[in-house]
From TrEMBL:
<keyword id="KW-0812">Transmembrane</keyword>
<dbReference type="GO" id="GO:0004527">
    <property type="term" value="F:exonuclease activity"/>
</dbReference>
<protein>
    <submittedName>
        <fullName>Endonuclease/exonuclease/phosphatase family protein</fullName>
    </submittedName>
</protein>
<keyword id="KW-0540">Nuclease</keyword>
<keyword id="KW-1133">Transmembrane helix</keyword>
<dbReference type="InterPro" id="IPR051916">
    <property type="entry name" value="GPI-anchor_lipid_remodeler"/>
</dbReference>
<keyword id="KW-0472">Membrane</keyword>
<dbReference type="InterPro" id="IPR036691">
    <property type="entry name" value="Endo/exonu/phosph_ase_sf"/>
</dbReference>
<dbReference type="InterPro" id="IPR005135">
    <property type="entry name" value="Endo/exonuclease/phosphatase"/>
</dbReference>
<dbReference type="Pfam" id="PF03372">
    <property type="entry name" value="Exo_endo_phos"/>
</dbReference>
<feature type="domain" description="Endonuclease/exonuclease/phosphatase">
    <location>
        <begin position="92"/>
        <end position="343"/>
    </location>
</feature>
<dbReference type="GO" id="GO:0016020">
    <property type="term" value="C:membrane"/>
</dbReference>
<keyword id="KW-0255">Endonuclease</keyword>
<keyword id="KW-0269">Exonuclease</keyword>
<feature type="transmembrane region" description="Helical">
    <location>
        <begin position="7"/>
        <end position="29"/>
    </location>
</feature>
<dbReference type="GO" id="GO:0004519">
    <property type="term" value="F:endonuclease activity"/>
</dbReference>
<keyword id="KW-0378">Hydrolase</keyword>
Length: 353
């Protein structure tokens, strides 16, 4: 009898090991491994060309896969949830995001965390949904999260994930490229993490130069910001090379750092500074470049709990870094009270000198 019980227990353990091992093997074999640079398709290309001395606007918005609205939390930040609360809520969030972006009338838009086929957003094509609101723009999309199944949290796992970065423009782009950012967590965690990247769009200017746009989303939960340091080093080298060509550069998106010239203490909160948020390194300062940020409007909240004004820690982590030949006319953060995303959008007006 004892032998039978031991045999049954051993069989259960062996089956569990085989299932877990087989799953890890499958995820390893199917792991998304893009090349260092990958050409990106520009859909619905526009023909309007930028002019020196003419102002234009650019909005960046991390939409939190249309699932991190004011009532949601996220397990990686200490919460319990990994998915949008419902498909109905996902649609409501997308409609709110799309309406805001449409009404902003921005010439260029950077979007981060846009899902194309993920369990957490009920397999909605969020690009298609946003296209219904945003006519007259070209679309450039690049993956930065492509995993067949994320098995955590154990009780309610995130599931399949397919998400990325989206750049929209009412001006002509001659090319778009996905650049892989360096830095990986240890195996097997790296199998289930984002493959961080940025999208580069090259836009002709009437004076013969190019405006180089970079839509980025840096790492967030790397301990001590070690991976983010590697990504900023890579970005610094990229900026140096493009600056030497005399082009205009605008780098923007979700930096996952408290940005220079801003202070989270300006925003009332009972929560302490979260572990994942890093101060921006002082040694990252491309010569002559300027930050375009709104220090008076928080662009992100903590998501360990649902949003309560005056409780959640808030900071400015979304904004733009521009080359010396780009004039910053105005920067405005939009405090939407995190109605449809854990981030708030930021809009800037620029003039090419």
């Amino acid at each position: 009898m004892v032998k039978k019980i031991l045999w049954a227990l051993a069989s259960v353990v062996l089956a569990a090991v085989l299932i877990v091992g087989g799953f890890i093997l499958y995820v390893t074999i199917t792991d998304y491994k893009p090349a260092a640079t990958v050409p990106v398709t520009i859909a619905n290309s526009q023909e309007h060309v930028l002019k020196k001395g003419t102002s234009f606007t650019l909005t960046t918005f991390n939409i939190g896969y249309a699932g991190l609205d004011k009532d949601e939390d996220f397990f990686m930040d200490g919460g319990t949830h990994s998915r949008s609360s419902s498909k109905v809520q996902t649609v409501l969030n997308l409609n709110g995001i799309g309406t805001f972006l449409k009404d902003s009338h921005s010439d260029i838009i950077f979007i981060q965390e846009v899902d194309v086929n993920s369990s957490r957003s009920y397999h909605m094509d969020e690009i298609g949904a946003l296209q219904n609101f945003l006519k007259g723009y070209s679309f450039s999309y690049a993956d930065n999260y492509k995993v067949p199944w994320v098995p955590v949290p154990i009780i309610h796992p995130m599931g399949s994930a397919h998400s990325g970065l989206l750049t929209l423009s009412s001006y002509k782009s001659t090319s778009a490229t996905r650049y892989a950012l360096p830095g990986k967590e240890k195996w097997p965690q790296q199998l289930f993490d984002l493959d961080r990247a940025f999208i580069e769009n090259r836009m002709p200017v009437e004076n013969g130069k190019e405006l180089v746009l970079v839509n980025l989303h840096l790492s967030a939960f790397d301990k001590g910001g070690s991976i983010r340091k590697q990504q900023l080093e890579f970005l610094g080298e990229y900026i140096k090379k493009e600056s030497e060509k005399g082009n205009y550069l605008i780098i923007g998106g979700d930096w996952n750092h408290s940005l220079p010239g801003t202070d989270p203490k300006a925003f009332a909160a009972t929560q302490d500074w979260p572990d994942w948020l890093q101060p921006f390194p002082e040694n990252f300062k491309p010569e002559g470049f300027q930050w375009a940020v709104d220090k008076n409007t928080p662009s992100v909240r903590t998501v360990d709990t649902a949003y309560q004004e005056g409780v959640n820690f808030r900071a400015v982590i979304d904004g733009f870094l521009v080359s010396p030949n780009v004039e910053i006319v105005n920067v405005q953060g939009h405090d939407l009270q995190h109605e449809h995303s854990d981030h708030n959008p930021v809009t800037a007006e620029f003039i090419l000198k």
